[in-house]
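Message: I would love a firmer grasp of how sequence relates to backbone shape in proteins. Thank you; the sequence and its tokens follow:
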Amino acid sequence: MLIAEDLLLLSYDDESGKATFDGTRLEYSLAGALLLELSMLGKVDVAGEGEAVKRDRLVVRDASPVGDDVLDHALTELSDDEGKKPKNVLGQLRKGTRDRLLRRLADRGLLREEEGRVLGIFPTTRWPAADATHEAGVRQRLHDVLVTGLEPDPRTAALVSLLLAVDGVNKVVPSDDRRAVKRRAKEISEGAWAADAVKRAVQEVQAAVTAAIVGASTAAAAGGS
């Protein structure tokens, strides 16, 4: 399972099949999850000093296929965007990612695709859980890390960082002390769970999500005035 797939399962209500996170935040974070996965696999990186690509710009270390259709599609996209700031490639990378992953999860039997119509006119699709076993395991790991205090593995730490970006930590890991859980999540995100390049990529993802939300809010305000 990809980090992006775990994030997507966590972001949809098992019964209603509807997303519980803001759509813009979710889509940028899914794109960020693909970037992080490729970074953790050594495929892409954020350039340091003395490289052909400017510092803090996207660099492709290994363009050979991963063997996963979603990651390979993302790697091709990123290969065309080498030299750009990571946060500036997420807008293109997010296109179609949510639908592609939802259908793949349905094909695997984890979600169920249900077509319907709003007011009998507008088509809509819901994605309730078909088998929540894997998701339950992910939620338990997050609880163990954020509430019990266990040390996270790199993939769980990456997922925690992405949940921070979508402001979803407290939704996914309910607790009587919401502040403590969020504080722990921030500690993990900033901790020594990955190489510096991967952590820089996390920061770029979080910055891109914030910029996307500000941009969407500004556009909505302008449209309403």
The chain has ten helices and four strands. The chain has one domain: 3-224. The longest helix spans residues 196-224. The longest strand covers residues 114-118.
